[in-house]
Amino acid sequence: MGFDRRQFYNGVIQTGFPIGGCVVAIAAIFMIPAFGWKSMFGVGGLLGVVLFVIAYRNLPRTECLPRKQGSARRGPRTGAALFHRCLAGTRYGT
């Protein structure tokens, strides 16, 4: 993915924070009197779980993580080695 594309998607993500805040504030106007303030935590938690499942199923697996092959463990054993391996093919790697 090109650098310009990453900047575009970063902008989309950053735009979602204030829009999400406005949507939650409007939803709170109706939900808190009807269900109480704790209902907002329930809805937020439910949305988080649903979005996690959608992302887990749809995002591609990164190639820098080791895959299971039988019982032998392959790949880096420490977090630092995994981090170095992930950056090796990028412009940030050494």
Molecular shape: elongated
Separation of the first and last Cα atoms: 20 Å
Structural class: mainly alpha
Instruction: Describe the main β-sheet briefly.
Output: none
Radius of gyration: 20 Å
Strand content: under 5%
Mean pLDDT reading: 80
Q: What is the string of helix and strand elements?
A: HHH
Name the helicity range. 55-70%
Could you list the spans in which at least 5 consecutive residues all have pLDDT below 50?
none
By DSSP (H or I, 4+ residues per run), the number of helices equals 3
Query: How many strand units?
Result: 0
Report on this structure.
The structure is a single chain. The protein is mostly helical and 94 residues long. Helix content is 67%, strand content 0%. The protein contains 3 helices and no strands.
SSE layout:
Elements: H1 3-35, H2 38-58, H3 79-87
In short:
The protein is an all-alpha fold and 94 residues long.
Task: Give keywords.
single chain, 94 residues, mainly alpha, 3 helices, 67% helix, elongated
